[in-house]
Automatic annotation (TrEMBL):
<dbReference type="InterPro" id="IPR000244">
    <property type="entry name" value="Ribosomal_bL9"/>
</dbReference>
<keyword id="KW-0689">Ribosomal protein</keyword>
<dbReference type="Pfam" id="PF03948">
    <property type="entry name" value="Ribosomal_L9_C"/>
</dbReference>
<feature type="domain" description="Ribosomal protein L9">
    <location>
        <begin position="13"/>
        <end position="40"/>
    </location>
</feature>
<dbReference type="InterPro" id="IPR036935">
    <property type="entry name" value="Ribosomal_bL9_N_sf"/>
</dbReference>
<keyword id="KW-0699">rRNA-binding</keyword>
<dbReference type="InterPro" id="IPR036791">
    <property type="entry name" value="Ribosomal_bL9_C_sf"/>
</dbReference>
<protein>
    <recommendedName>
        <fullName>Large ribosomal subunit protein bL9</fullName>
    </recommendedName>
</protein>
<dbReference type="InterPro" id="IPR020070">
    <property type="entry name" value="Ribosomal_bL9_N"/>
</dbReference>
<keyword id="KW-0694">RNA-binding</keyword>
<dbReference type="Pfam" id="PF01281">
    <property type="entry name" value="Ribosomal_L9_N"/>
</dbReference>
<keyword id="KW-0687">Ribonucleoprotein</keyword>
<dbReference type="InterPro" id="IPR020594">
    <property type="entry name" value="Ribosomal_bL9_bac/chp"/>
</dbReference>
<dbReference type="GO" id="GO:0005840">
    <property type="term" value="C:ribosome"/>
</dbReference>
<dbReference type="InterPro" id="IPR009027">
    <property type="entry name" value="Ribosomal_bL9/RNase_H1_N"/>
</dbReference>
<comment type="similarity">
    <text>Belongs to the bacterial ribosomal protein bL9 family.</text>
</comment>
<comment type="function">
    <text>Binds to the 23S rRNA.</text>
</comment>
Length: 148
């Protein structure tokens, strides 16, 4: 099935790309989550609009990405969440929580879709997350999760 990506999907492509995937993957995962729309001749016009929006948000050069990486890695991020007595969280920390905590700590704006959490953060303490800034540049950000 041919689809148009509306968001970046790891291993598949970036927003505005027209890709061919298996029917079930598109029907059950990509389209319901809003990562893609079905390809049509009319939808082909949307591709240019999606690409323009991507260019505005995207970090254009590796130099810019390295500059933002330096800013991110120098920021001390503390995230206050509700936790039980044993240090387990009520829920888990989301990429949106991390993006807003980075901004609150004085760091640069980070798109929540670029924050990658290796395994779900469900305990208090120090954790590492990755932020994909460019195709070749990834920043490691230390997040201190504390009880609220």
């Amino acid at each position: 099935m041919k689809i148009i990506l509306t968001h970046e999907v790891s291993g598949l492509g970036t927003a505005g790309d027209v890709v061919d995937v298996k029917d079930g993957y598109a029907r059950n995962y990509l389209v319901p989550r809003g990562f893609a729309i079905r390809w049509t001749k009319g939808g082909e016009k949307d591709v240019e609009q999606i690409r323009r929006g991507r260019k505005i948000r995207e970090i254009a050069t590796i130099e810019q990405a390295n500059e933002v990486k330096g800013q991110l890695e120098g920021v001390k991020v503390k995230l206050a969440v509700r936790a039980g007595e044993a240090g387990r969280l009520f829920g888990s920390v989301t990429p949106a929580d991390i993006a807003s905590a980075v901004k609150a700590a004085g760091g640069p704006d980070v798109d929540k879709r670029r924050v990658e959490i290796g395994s779900p953060i469900k305990t208090l303490g120090a954790h590492q997350v990755s932020v994909r800034l460019h195709a070749e540049v990834t920043a490691k950000v230390g997040v201190e999760v504390v009880a609220a």
